[in-house]
Amino acid sequence: MHRRIMAPGALAAASLMLAIPASAASLSPGAPGIGDPYYPAYGNGGYDVSHYDLRLKYQPATDELAGTATLLAKTTQDLSRFNLDFLLDVSEVRVNGAKASFATSGEHELEITPKKALAKGTPLTVVVRYRGVPSTKEAYGFNAWLRTSDGGVAAGEPEGAWWWFPSNDHPLDKATYDVSVQVPDGTQFISNGTLQSTSSRAGWTRYNWRSNKPQATYLATFAAGRFDVTTGTSESGIPVINAYSKDLGDRAGAARASIERTGEIADWLSEYFGPYPYNALGGYVPNTNTGYALETQTRPFYSPSNFANGSNTSVVVHELAHQWWGDLVSVKKWKDIWINEGFARYAQWLWSEREGEGTAQEIADYVYASRSADDAFWTVKPGDPGPENQFHIAVYDRGALALQALRNEIGDDAFFAILKGWPAKYAYGNASVADFVRYAEEVSGKPLAALFDTWLFQPSKPGAPAARSASIAKSAVEQPKSWKKIAATNEVHGH
Q1: In what order do the strands lie in the sheet with 101-105?
Q2: For residue 208, which of 196, 282, 363, 438 is within the disulfide window of CB 3.0 to 4.6 Å?
Q3: CA-to-CA distance for 205 and 199, rounded, in angstroms?
Q4: Stated pTM of the model
Q5: 333 φ, ψ (degrees, to nearest 5)
Q6: What is the Cα–Cα distance from 145 to 161, expressed in whole angstroms?
Q7: Could you tell me which residues come within 8 angstroms of residue 377 by beta carbon, excluding any fewer than 6 positions away?
């Protein structure tokens, strides 16, 4: 605030200004980004979404998607205008029942100006009617929609929602979901959570899915196509729904042999990470030509190429570990990606140990010894890799190596207490690398800042003294039996 002396002639105008409520004087547009330094335009400021209700119709033959999104939210500031992240063509917007004006800006912003300004703390019901062909829409020079021969798929990180529903697209704003999509008879629709109902009429079938726990926007998934669907229940009692494209060819058997073990693997992971946090399990494999997989909440997305060399339970372990590390506890900012990827990779190392194909220690020794000090791998800092290296292999392998160093430093009791306690402490919320360092120190009772700095934040290979101190590569190193299976998942998030 800048103080100034007011001239007597301005007193009348000043008295009028004083009559304006303070909230009106502070009205301003919500920020067009949520404040993430890696992706400044992602997400939005000024409101928080609690629920998305999506009622859509999709035509696989033309890739046209049309329908209505209803967002339940609350303002977090006095708002004159706010943004949603979206790319399809909007025909109408209503805010709390009244028509609102709207316009597009930037690469992916839908600017909404309500008829009446909104005070902080106001409940919002935002209704957006829209249609469009997702495969024709680009932002920043790319299209994240996956067109298939029998439909379309949305499964992308760090973005993917823009191509099928308007949202506050950042992990900081989690919400619950009802996703209802109508497709032609003979086509199936797969999404997150539990299948509430299906109904058929006049050649169309509507699928109604519900996610009843907070879910980040990039973890919401859309998959329309011709699928073989299997159902079951894990030993712990969680319903399992898996779906496989009818067009997988000779990869179908390997995909099924891997993904049908989802319930078993989730139950095994719960021994390390605590109870499975959702009421649904599964996975799906559409006939895409991508190479990555994604931890879409409760029902991970897999590519056929993940099973090109046969069955691979290691990729299933990775995506299911994310249900705790990334989904239950999500990043505060995208620079905290190690919280997701380092731990999902370490889960693969633990699975290798279970399968008798190499211990976590042996794999850590191999990762350290197999890359020379001048390898560019060591220049990537898993604790803050930069947007260009967010999914670099170093975030995975060096990230997991840091966990083995931690385990050796604090001992198994404290280490596994951290693996189980962390998801419980931050359940359904967000946390950062700095939060994890503090939590590890709290549980172990040891100062750990120097260890994490060495293994996560220095752009160089930790030297021999640091490795010896962390009991890494202390003997001759052979390639573990599981290495090829683990390495086959190196591109699981290589967008």
Answers
A1: 28-29, 79-85, 109-113, 101-105
A2: 196
A3: 6
A4: 0.93
A5: -135, 160
A6: 9
A7: 371, 393, 394, 397, 398
